[in-house]
Amino acid sequence: MYAIVRAGGRQEKVAVGDVVVLDRMAAAPGSSVNLKALLLVEEGVITTDAAALSAVTVTAEVMQHERGEKIHILRYKNKTGYRRRQGHRQDLTRVKVTAIKTGK
């Protein structure tokens, strides 16, 4: 069984026991969070109905907060001497999926 969940502005495919890296969540390490299921596949049966998915809960445990790889942003305009350099590191949260419960 696996589910497609919404986490921040992204969608992730998760199954029980999977460790996924998501955008930073406001939850302490060791606490558990619920993720909204958008699709559920159980024994070959695909569920996409919003009413049926409202009963599905995907529970994950927050393992740690971390930062992603640094990316470099460069801006350049020719013939003017305009150059700007900027860096960015995304704040991330590593979670482990502990349960996918259906409303059955």
UniProtKB/TrEMBL annotation:
Q: Which UniProt keywords apply?
A: Ribonucleoprotein, Ribosomal protein, RNA-binding, rRNA-binding
**Cellular component terms (Gene Ontology):** cytoplasm; ribonucleoprotein complex; ribosome
| One GO molecular-function entry | structural constituent of ribosome
Query: Looking at the Swiss-Prot or TrEMBL record, what is one Pfam family this protein matches?
Result: Ribosomal_L21p
Q: Does the keyword Transcription apply?
A: no
| Keyword Membrane (UniProt) | no
Question: What positions belong to coiled-coil segments?
Answer: none
GO terms classed as biological process: translation
- Please give the family membership noted in the entry: Belongs to the bacterial ribosomal protein bL21 family.
Xref: NCBIfam families: L21
Q: Which HAMAP family match?
A: Ribosomal_bL21 (MF_01363)
Q: What is this protein called?
A: Unannotated protein
